[in-house]
């Protein structure tokens, strides 16, 4: 009978395990401790959100893309001949419609640029491109006028014979524009864009044929 009435040991309860510090801690101190834990958790969550936001901005908004410069249309003016040769007293004018496309989410501000025209590998004209601003995700158009010096054109070997026999003038140009993109006053990147173009002027149609441009970028 004694064996049947023998008491069974009680299972340990998790809630009964408390430290003396918790037992002796007053109620206001316990509340303060819980508030500190909650505050730390909120601060950690805020830091994680900020870190995620910064990573997204760096990969999207803060990513600076290359501006694109194109020479859309070119016309030649005052190309005059006398006695089977180019008139040396009248400058030949080359007018180009140049566009600057800015794919970034901030304005691309550029300084004065230069456009150099070559014929037969020799420099025959040079001009400055005006400064400007290409707004975010917009395209800016501007006219660039270059005076071609007749004496330099006549100095190109075989130029007049090709012009008189074929009726075409092959020229190339190099445009250099430097500027910067600044995003939220935080990210600032300096960019130099170079565009090399080759084209052929047809005297019969008085139009440019076969224009081809190739951009180059320096950061």
From TrEMBL:
InterPro entries: Lea14-like_2, LEA_2. This is LATE EMBRYOGENESIS ABUNDANT (LEA) HYDROXYPROLINE-RICH GLYCOPROTEIN FAMILY. The chain crosses the membrane at residues 39-62. It comes from Salix viminalis (Common osier). Residues 98-198 form the Late embryogenesis abundant protein LEA-2 subgroup domain. SUPFAM superfamilies: LEA14-like. Keywords: Membrane, Transmembrane, Transmembrane helix. The keyword Magnesium does not apply.
